[in-house]
Specification:
Two copies of one chain form a homodimer. Chain A has a domain of 120 residues: Nucleic acid-binding proteins (OB fold (Dihydrolipoamide Acetyltransferase, E2P)). In chain A, a hairpin with a 5-residue loop joins strand 8 and strand 9. In chain A, the strands form two sheets. A five-stranded mixed barrel of chain A has the order 1-3-4-6-5. A five-stranded mixed barrel of chain A has the order 7-9-10-12-11. The first copy, chain A, is mainly beta and 276 residues long. In chain A, 11% of the residues lie in helices and 47% in strands. The interface between A and B is large, with 120 and 121 residues. Strand 6 of chain A pairs antiparallel with strand 13 of chain B.
């Protein structure tokens, strides 16, 4: 996402001495309504920075700074100590950050700029659907579908080297024609790719307390693991390859796909390799 | 991107003993034409995997496997030894990979699936414009703009720990109303965020040799480093903060933005932290 920091940056330290910063970004965005209108809005997003990235932000990020953040969505849940309600808050844990302000300060907005001011607020998720999608029709006659998608985040504990795993649950909202189709073809257990903007909405409990819910408003939902006839035309099978003269034959004893252990795999390449 | 592997996987070893695999993916995609039609196409993309990710692919990726790849675009250039022409090829260097096939094999395509079959082929680039954009009008009367964008990739050499830097150049193509606006507000030196699909097209030299060029066909181009009045309304300035009673005052001696050294910053967090 690309946003503007709204507050002075405060660094805090974990008991282990690691710096942590919570940025509070405003992310202006534009999107197309079902009617084709361009609507504008602002999203607010908490972004947590760790380690030397936090120190860097403490030194150089100021209120109004424009920042690019790449990272993963994380929802923290807890029980309210007085009401015993379940509470949760979704934030972005930053994996990379770019300060976007020119060295001599932000430049004025060019007069012709309109489409080129569109901001970046996007979450991409590959995960499993946790419950059958629910579709309902708004009073205005529009279809809206809600979907739960779980992703598995994996990482190594830096101090112990221990492999850690955490399931992350995402609330996904889909509108219109895509909602209708997803309602038909996606079920509990389906594997999907979901892409959309992250939006936090506020609501009030019956006791008048303010609560927030963070959702991915998806404009793409692709069903994964399905046979795609058009793509398979381009696939050169092992058999075809074996028929042609070759120096290194493909492994004929490659394991069947049923033997594949873990289907998620991360590189050993450091995040420093990332282009931004 | 999400694609299907087209060939049997072959592992090779660098002289240093690191495994390398080049995947050849077909990425079926759909996009909206200027006229609002949904057009379908297929992109072919080479993806390079290193280290244990390459070994993993050698063991589990088969022709037809569906795979999610995240990574960075890299263009390798060389001089043709006979013609002394400059040649180049753009590939994706994978930073993460997910095998998408269900353990018991791909499922048949649901009959209602149409929008949910849309594939993923997207490159996001934050970089500097290397030359003034060129706009021309096609014979059909459509505006098309070409743009050069440079990104700085940084990484640490794994063996020596040496900090490395490499400029990467991207060819960007923009159509329609966005092209027209970009032509007005973007100039050499502008900082932009570009998002679009990666497409490789083939053409022939005057000598009849086949050549390929890889471009990002962008549907978003955002001008960065500009003042955004709407966003700035949400910014709480240091002065406002200081006026309110606070426990920790913001650093009054924060450096001016002119002092910011390097505006690109990568986390120490390992890529294992990535959600996919």
């Amino acid at each position: 996402m690309i946003g503007y920091q709204t507050q002075p940056v405060e660094i805090r330290q974990t008991p282990g001495g690691t710096s942590v910063v919570d940025l509070n970004l405003v992310v202006p965005y534009a999107f197309q309504s079902e009617q084709g209108e361009t609507l504008q809005g602002k999203a607010f997003q908490t972004v947590t920075l760790w380690g030397s990235m936090a120190d860097f932000a403490g030194q150089y990020v100021r209120p109004g700074s424009q920042i690019f953040i790449g990272g993963r969505l994380q929802t923290d849940s807890w029980e309210d100590q007085t009401t015993h309600e379940k509470r949760s808050k979704t934030k972005v844990v930053a994996l990379d950050m770019i300060l976007l302000d020119p060295k001599d300060g932000q430049v004025p907005m060019p007069e012709a700029a309109k489409l080129t001011l569109s901001a970046v607020n996007r979450a991409d998720v590959v995960g499993n659907v946790t419950r059958d999608p629910e579709i309902r029709t708004t009073s205005g006659g529009k279809q809206v579908l809600t979907l739960g998608v779980a992703t598995n985040d994996r990482w190594k504990e830096r101090s112990t080297g221990e492999a850690k795993k955490r399931a992350e649950f995402h609330n996904v909202v889909i509108w219109g024609a895509l909602a209708e189709e997803v309602g038909k073809v996606v079920h509990k257990g389906s594997r999907v790719f979901v892409s959309g903007r992250v939006q936090t909405r506020s609501w009030e409990t019956q006791q008048g307390q303010k609560r927030t819910t963070t959702e991915i408003i998806a404009d793409q939902c692709s069903l994964l693991g399905v046979r795609n006839a058009s793509a398979l035309e381009a696939v050169e099978t092992s058999a075809q390859r074996r028929a042609a003269p070759r120096a290194t034959p493909p492994a004929a004893d490659a394991p069947a796909s049923a033997d594949i252990p873990e289907i998620q795999y991360a590189s050993e390449v450091k995040v420093e390799d990332l282009p931004f």
